[in-house]
Amino acid sequence: xxxxxxxxxxxxxxxxxxxxxxxxxxxxxxxxxxxxxxxxxxxxxxxxxxxxxxxxxxxxxxxxxxxxxxxxxxxxxxxxxxxxxxxxxxxxxxxxxxxxxxxxxxxxxxxxxxxxxxxxxxxxxxxxxxxxxxxxxxxxxxxxxxxxxxxxxxxxxxxxxxxxxxxxxxxxxxxxxxxxxxxxxxxxxxxxxxxxxxxxxxxxxxxxxxxxxxxxxxxxxxxxxxxxxxxxxxxxxxxxxxxxxxxxxxxxxxxxxxxxxxxxxxxxxxxxxxxxxxxxxxxxxxxxxxxxxxxxxxxxxxxxxxxxxxxxxxxxxxxxxxxxxxxxxxxxxxxxxxxxxxxxxxxxxxxxxxxxxxxxxxxxxxxxxxxxxxxxxxxxxxxxxxxxxxxxxxxxxxxxxxxxxxxxxxxxxxxxxxxxxxxxxxxxxxxxxxxxxxxxxxxxxxxxxxxxxxxxxxxxxxxxxxxxxxxxxxxxxxxxxxxxxxxxxxxxxxxxxxxxxxxxxxxxxxxxxxxxxxxxxxxxxxxxxxxxxxxxxxxxxxxxxxxxxxxxxxxxxxxxxxxxxxxxxxxxxxxxxxxxxxxxxxxxxxxxxxxxxxxxxxxxxxxxxxxxxxxxxxxxxxxxxxxxxxxxxxxxxxxxxxxxxxxxxxxxxxxxxxxxxxxxxxxxxxxxxxxxxxxxxxxxxxxxxxxxxxxxxxxxxxxxxxxxxxxxxxxxxxxxxxxxxxxxxxxxxxxxxxxxxxxxxxxxxxxxxxxxxxxxxxxxxxxxxxxxxxxxxxxxxxxxxxxxxxxxxxxxxxxxxxxxxxxxxxxxxxxxxxxxxxxxxxxxxxxxxxxxxxxxxxxxxxxxxxxxxxxxxxxxxxxxxxxxxxxxxxxxxxxxxxxxxxxxxxxxxxxxxxxxxxxxxxxxxxxxxxxxxxxxxxxx
Length: 924
Fold this sequence. Notes:
Number of helices: 3
Structural class: mainly beta
Strand content: 35-45%
Strand order of the largest sheet: 1-2-4-7-10-13-16-19-22-25
Distance between the termini: 73 Å
Largest sheet: 10 strands, parallel
């Protein structure tokens, strides 16, 4: 048991630190600013304001007036030696301080550049680092606080701070110094809460400096006496210090006195010493030398001199710190001259409840520069009833990481507007506080731990208070889970649904939750955490019966089933420069019939992990027989829709918009035979990002059959204006086009791309001699609203028809779907030449659609034009038909009244198959 604590006045002998206010954002008229950092706009011929600071400290010294503070920006070292020779006035000092908040940052002078205070008075210097002596001469009322000073190049024998030339009332506090020398008739110098080290010379040498006060310092010596008081230094005082002497090393070149504490006869008159801790005394030297007589320990020292009645001697320097068990703790004299209210690090005086208060008058001040602290940094809490009905007693247990738990108190705010409960921990493992809530709700319980010096740490938890008059009743909603960014690291699969249980009534905690998501995945019911039920990804859109079973800690059960509709979300389009992701020709393998193969997206590019659908250009070449290819999001899909139809030995391509599978993949299924597969990535759709789409009436933007330029030759390019024309705004980011090749002189491929200087290794169209071939392309807009067309070989005419655009003023978002057949004339009769068929079944509100339109059993060459129902048809074509061939094409078109119209040219009759891949709707 420690003795009863008595009230201790720390104010006796207290040095009053001058109040230099912390730097503020405002440019106060009593401040000058120095900032040599890059971009600071500094000049030494300016006003020294915060906006236009001085570049050098020396310029500020010349300008500063009494009562002003020079605020110096830390960071880049100042390459100057500084001399302060201007003075403040009583109560209006001039200050030189760090212009920074938070951590104790310091201003540094370049190595070898020192600071001199000469002939000045009423000066405060705080937070300066020098690697050359800091000298004070012929000056008075000077405060040096939080200084770091070394001797520069003279590491072994130099002195970091020198006070001399008759200076008076100099205060050195809370600083880290290499050697201090007080001499030259200086008077009433005070050193408090400093860490001072000496190597060859004494850590602290005081000569001819009467009235010097040395209180609560940590002094470390090596080759000379650690604290040496000589000459006419009468009336001095040494209290509460930790004085350490370390073993002699190779630095020590002489056999001079190495007493930790040495006072010459000339300095003993009216000099007092007590409550010091002398730590370590290796070698033959005695702990004390007073007036020429050596004393081995405090008892002998007191008997011989009357001094040091409360001194402590420890055998090693390690015994003099603030570690547990150190005799320095709570054993100093709080009434000694020069005592400060805070220690070297700015911590207040703290009482360690584990240690008896053996300081003067029962005081608990520590010896040395550092004050031991309890280490409080965090608080912890537990709530025994974090979920319970109204009227249940809720108990909070609080604790912290303080080393002194018995001195801790805790303020517990239960979050319902009632008065916080203050409780003590005492000798218990935790402090306890209880409360009864009067109404349901979710309440944040906040615990604030408070130690003996007022330092705090907080923590908080939520407790749920429920209505006690209602039984357990399960309920849920299943909102879609959508990506929130375009980061490739955020993989959010399409068709992912969350499970929100906020509507459940649960008076007591739910201990068991089983969920059947209704899609046959797994074994039916699976266990989920009620408080974090997670999400579920479906493999296909549709309606699913979801069942949730709950059981609470009281044994009550409840089950609920709901039908959940799962569908792809409306998404914006992200255009990318096209790049190739698959080419089996270079990998020396072929796609085989009835052997589905997949690739994960994105591939070869750093794209979003949250795409719902991808736009691809798919090419099939080198087919061993007439066949077709289907693209789908899942391996199990067997689409009735063919995306690419190819003849034996031929090459055919088509744009494909396909939803992305739950693992980020798409699947390719060749119907029969073998063929090479080439896939180019064009862009993707994703909710919450990307551009909206606006359809336009199909509009012809270019036709090489007209004009003077003629067909596009092999290896040549042609620029086409696509934005700012044909109803497409100049700031469109991408355009949807139908490309048609006709009159080709050889097998070739055509590339449409935005930047004429960066042609991709992709293709959009594969013209062949004697065949008119078309394909839709979505192309980012390049410089000046153009795109570039490149023909690889031979020559070919090209026709470019616009069907829509993407941009910031686009109107509609795209919703992908599993391919759905809207129309098939094989069940109703062929479409005659010059006839139009109407295809219905598009969702209400659709303003545009993405279709796969296929012409088959064609009797003669011609073309199909798809346009919005009720709108005028233009000369633009959507698909070119050829006798004997089945030709599919990706078609983006406006929609009218939930319908589209398909016109067959005058070439021959066709069967037309129309499959819906997705649709566009306007939304806010």
